Amino acid sequence: MNRLYHFPLSPFCRKVRLTLAEKKLEVELVEERYWEPSADFLRRNPAGKVPILKMDSKMLTESQAICEYLEETHPTPPLMPRDPEERFEVRKLCAWFDDKFHKEVTSNLVYERVNKKVMKLGYPDSKAVKLGAQRIKYHLDYMAWLLDQRRWLAGDVMTLADFTAAAHLSCLDYISDVDWNRSTNVKDWYAKIKSRPSFRPLLADQVPGFPPPSHYADLDF
Amino acid sequence: MNRLYHFPLSPFCRKVRLTLAEKKLEVELVEERYWEPSADFLRRNPAGKVPILKMDSKMLTESQAICEYLEETHPTPPLMPRDPEERFEVRKLCAWFDDKFHKEVTSNLVYERVNKKVMKLGYPDSKAVKLGAQRIKYHLDYMAWLLDQRRWLAGDVMTLADFTAAAHLSCLDYISDVDWNRSTNVKDWYAKIKSRPSFRPLLADQVPGFPPPSHYADLDF
């Protein structure tokens, strides 16, 4: 059985979970308190990060590398197009969300409001939270602009870029930090992703002390 | 003519320059002061980052996505193996250097000591510099451990993982922050990479106000 060491509100773990589920690969989830790393955990990944996917005897780390590996070894259904330019667009957007969006939005909101409390690192930094709340608007507008021209974020088919973006947004939605009224096409796009069977386990996640809002698991939000 | 908007001591730009040069793709270099972004620059890349590769009419951003695109469109000479597990190892190590190594070492040393001065952001934070100087030892030992088992970082052939690591180390070597006496096999590996024709333009770079040490461009360092 495959095993994924993860943390429920990590967008990088969610991206791997969505990719596994889309490809119908079953996985046992093991929650990892990566900020209190055990010797075993550091042996599995000296980078001290989640996700870690144990598959056969291999320990796979780094979410984008894991997803590319799953795509190459389990190509059905495809989450990457065939054309190099379209593939570039997917990878560029994955990097946009995992790097820029993560630094400006996910870190400033999810990490400040949830992870810090769970990790007993004190109160959220209000400047960071304010910055994150400002920056998410700009990112939602960028997504709206992309979706004005395309059915999905990277083109006319659903790809890893959509799951990467949705992984981040779902963590933010858990703490009610996404204004779904800002753009109809972003809301419609998220509704399509959210209704996929692969999304269901994410919507069932609960972080103790942080109950999600009622709209979080509602497909008609 | 292809054009690369870059900053000389950016490891991400160096990685793309090395990949282009290995694949014998000529490129015109345009230095971009990305911390003083012009409207034109932000139009080329709304993320406000370098490198940006203009190729035909396309504007390509995000260094790993660019290198994967170049690999797919110009497969000779290959910088990625064919086997999915070996490809995973390359991508995992690229992420290791571009994420973990960058955060712990390159940012703490190159950005604190050089970029901050160039950008007129004040003096280096001595705590960050001290941390970077500590962490690089751990990373050099990790590389030494990898190279004990393999000829190159990701396996027995030279790949993008080697160029990614060398891009970071070359920036650090520009400010004499690599202790080449720490491990013979890391030094031998770097000597092999450094002597490649693709590396020569990097060794000719100069940042005004920061002359490189004499060993920097010396192939027999």
Explain this structure.
By secondary structure, the first copy, chain A, is an alpha+beta fold. The first copy, chain A, has two domains: 2-73, Glutaredoxin, CATH 3.40.30; 84-200, Glutathione S-transferase Yfyf (Class Pi), Chain A, domain 2 (Up-down Bundle). Helices cover 54% and strands 8% of the residues of chain A. Chain A contains eight helices and four strands. The first copy, chain A, has a four-stranded mixed β-sheet, covered by helices on one side. In chain A, a hairpin with a 2-residue loop joins strand 3 and strand 4 (58-61). In chain A, helix 1 (11-22) crosses helix 6 (160-174) and helix 4 packs parallel to helix 6. The mean pLDDT of chain A is 95. At the A-B interface, strand 4, helix 3 and helix 4 of A face strand 4, helix 3 and helix 4 of B.
Q: Strand order within the widest sheet of chain A?
A: 2-1-3-4
Proportion of strand residues of chain A:
5-15%
Order of helices and strands of chain A, N to C? Answer: EHEHEEHHHHHH
| Oligomeric state of the chains in view | homodimer
Structural domain tally of chain A: 2
Question: For the CA atoms, what is the radius of gyration of chain A?
Answer: 17 Å
For the record, the CATH architecture of the largest domain in chain A stands as Up-down Bundle
How would you sum up this structure in a few lines?
Chain A contains eight helices and four strands; from the N terminus they run βαβαββαααααα. Chain A is an alpha+beta fold and 221 residues long.
Which secondary structure elements does this structure contain, and how are they paired or packed?
2 copies of one chain form a homodimer.
Chain A lengths: L1 E5 L4 H12 L4 E5 L7 H6 L7 E4 L2 E4 L1 H11 L10 H35 L7 H24 L10 H15 L9 H11 L5 H5 L17
Parallel strand pairs in A: 1-2
Antiparallel strand pairs in A: 1-3, 3-4
Helix pairs in contact in A: 1-3, 1-6, 4-5, 4-6, 5-7
